[in-house]
């Protein structure tokens, strides 16, 4: 059988990749029905996420198949999923679990403190990386092992939100967020995330921004660690 690409089998259309399709539907549902708490910027961000996603779902694009990859933190994924099915995010968590063996977990930082390398990983679902290509929207997951401190960082030109699927996290010491809370980081604002000491945390995230801001984004911490 002849293939045009040596390493990768032909990618299916999104409509045929059932687990991926339903996972993206969960993202769309979350960004449609999560309460906005009266915040206009959050409402605008949610609308942008679901509109861009709806357009992609309607277009029925081909999907890519990134090589699955694990990192030290992903040893906690099973526990995070087990905890998450007891939360209001249960359906989202179950859709995530179906795709878990296919996820490509990454660091995204060139220089990562050793402690963070054991406790943090992210996996893109949609965006310049991930299963579905998109220039102006990124969707994915972040996984934190127990007792993780995700140091201060920011994303210039990119608006970020997290939906807590499992576990409990605090951001900037301003509050504790549990499923199905949404955390919102306006473009360019610095944020530090901490997780509880005893359980992992799994968060879905969305980035919106101009295509050049997303394509040119480099993950950097706000301050160099003194070590
Ligand atoms: Fe962030």
Protein architecture, described:
The structure is a single chain. The protein has 227 residues and is an alpha+beta fold. The chain has helices at 18-33, 40-59, 77-84, 90-99, 114-119, 211-215, and strands spanning 120-127, 132-133, 137-144, 149-153, 158-166, 169-171, 176-177, 182-185, 191-195, 201-209. The strands form two sheets. Strands 2-1-3-10-5-8 form a six-stranded mixed beta sheet. It has a four-stranded antiparallel beta sheet with strand order 4-9-6-7, with no helix packed on it. Helix 1 (18-33) packs antiparallel against helix 2 (40-59) and helix 1 packs antiparallel against helix 4 (90-99). The chain is globular and about 40 Å long. Bound molecules: fe (ii) ion.
How much beta, percentage-wise?
15-25%
Number of domains: 1
Report the span from N to C terminus.
Answer: 54 Å
Morphology call: globular
The run of helices and strands is HHHHHEEEEEEEEEEH
The CATH class turns out to be Mainly Beta
Q: Which strands sit side by side, in order, in the main sheet?
A: 2-1-3-10-5-8
Instruction: Tell me how many strands there are.
Output: 10
Helix content: 25-40%
CATH superfamily: Jelly Rolls
| CATH structural architecture | Sandwich
Largest sheet: 6 strands, mixed
Unreliable residue runs: 1-5
Number of helices: 6
Mean pLDDT: 92
Return Rg in Å. Answer: 17 Å
- CATH fold node name: Jelly Rolls
- Give the distinct bound molecules: fe (ii) ion
């Amino acid at each position: 059988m002849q293939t045009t690409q040596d390493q990768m089998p032909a990618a299916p259309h999104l409509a045929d990749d059932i687990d991926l399709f339903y996972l993206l539907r969960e993202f769309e549902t979350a960004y449609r029905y999560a309460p906005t708490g009266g915040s206009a910027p959050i409402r605008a961000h949610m609308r942008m996420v679901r509109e861009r996603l709806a357009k992609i779902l309607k277009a029925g694009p081909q999907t890519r198949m990134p090589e699955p990859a694990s990192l030290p933190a992903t040893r906690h994924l099973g526990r995070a999923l087990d905890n998450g099915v007891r939360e209001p995010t249960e359906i989202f968590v179950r859709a995530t679990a179906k795709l878990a063996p296919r996820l490509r977990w990454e660091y995204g930082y060139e220089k990562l403190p050793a402690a963070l390398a054991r406790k943090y990983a992210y996996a893109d679902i949609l965006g310049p990386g991930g299963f579905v290509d998109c220039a102006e929207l990124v969707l994915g997951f972040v996984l934190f092992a127990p007792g993780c401190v995700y140091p201060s960082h920011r994303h210039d030109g990119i608006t970020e939100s997290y939906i807590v699927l499992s576990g409990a996290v605090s951001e900037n010491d301003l509050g504790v967020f549990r499923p199905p809370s949404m955390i919102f980081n306006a473009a360019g604002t610095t944020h530090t995330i901490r997780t509880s000491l005893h359980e992992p945390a799994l968060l879905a995230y969305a980035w919106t921004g101009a295509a050049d801001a997303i394509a040119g984004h480099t993950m950097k911490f706000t301050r160099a660690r003194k070590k």
